[in-house]
Amino acid sequence: MGRRRGDDAVVSTLVDEDTFVDWLRDHGVPAGDDTAFLAAGEHRAGLVLTTDSQLESVHFPEDLDPWLIAQRLVRVNLSDLSAAGSRPRWALCNLNAPPDFDRERFFAGLLADCRRWGLSLIGGDTSSARQVSSTLTAIGDLPQGRRPLTRDRARPGDRLLVAGSLGEAAAGLLLQQAGARCHRGAVELPEGLPQGLAAAARRAVRRHRLPVPDVELGLELARPLSSGRTGRRGPAAIDLSDGLLKDAHRLAGASGVRLRIDLDRLPVAASLRRLAQYLEVTPLHHALSGGEDYVLLFSLPPEHPGATAGQEIGEVCVGSGLELVRGGRDVTTEVLDQLPRLGWDHLADG
Amino acid sequence: MGRRRGDDAVVSTLVDEDTFVDWLRDHGVPAGDDTAFLAAGEHRAGLVLTTDSQLESVHFPEDLDPWLIAQRLVRVNLSDLSAAGSRPRWALCNLNAPPDFDRERFFAGLLADCRRWGLSLIGGDTSSARQVSSTLTAIGDLPQGRRPLTRDRARPGDRLLVAGSLGEAAAGLLLQQAGARCHRGAVELPEGLPQGLAAAARRAVRRHRLPVPDVELGLELARPLSSGRTGRRGPAAIDLSDGLLKDAHRLAGASGVRLRIDLDRLPVAASLRRLAQYLEVTPLHHALSGGEDYVLLFSLPPEHPGATAGQEIGEVCVGSGLELVRGGRDVTTEVLDQLPRLGWDHLADG
Question: Does some domain include residue A18?
Answer without folding.
Answer: no
